[in-house]
Amino acid sequence: MKVQKFSIADVNLVRSPGQSGDIFVANMVDERHGGHITIGYGRYAPEQTLTETMAVDDVMIVLEGRIAVSMGAGTVEAGPGEIVYMPKGASVTITTEGEGALTAYVTYPHWAEAHES
Amino acid sequence: MKVQKFSIADVNLVRSPGQSGDIFVANMVDERHGGHITIGYGRYAPEQTLTETMAVDDVMIVLEGRIAVSMGAGTVEAGPGEIVYMPKGASVTITTEGEGALTAYVTYPHWAEAHES
Questions:
Q1: ipTM value of the model?
Q2: Yes or no, beta carbons of B7 and A83 under 8 Å apart
Q3: pTM for this prediction
Q4: A104/B83 touch (CB, cutoff 8 Å), yes or no
């Protein structure tokens, strides 16, 4: 029940599971803490591509850089302050160009559990 | 199941319910869309104070400006790129100073429904 504050300076990013690119994540709040949502930071190096089918609802807030998310016919591009919502079941390709990107994310339910199952 | 992108430029902010200050919100995704989470933007004018007991888990990502959240003995202050997590049941006072703040938020479950009940 305690209010918590997180900053990218506090985190240890690890390579995002299930891919070998330079995409790193750090969960600040997740299944270890008893709630329903996961909160974290993601860092994408430049020129990365990640294709996946969303196992959870995933909200990505771009903090720095730019990211593109394509799904079938359409592509959205997002920069600082913009939000990309990738609902469960969506098959997406996430790409970065020369800048890479820093994101915050919130998922419901916990992505790490959904990933394993 | 569609990927969506949101930008502060797209939104119509409305006064946050239950308070008369200059605090404005816009839900981009909420109970109208069938999922479990609400996604939105919040704008706090300078020198605002909002006290509430959290009816839902609320993740606030600061995009511009600064915000302080106090709870009992402790206060956290957050600026651009920082995340404040206010879990359900927490009694908080949110304040802004001279800059005000622009935030993105994600709540589980939907705050508007919890607010009404």
A1: 0.94
A2: yes
A3: 0.94
A4: yes
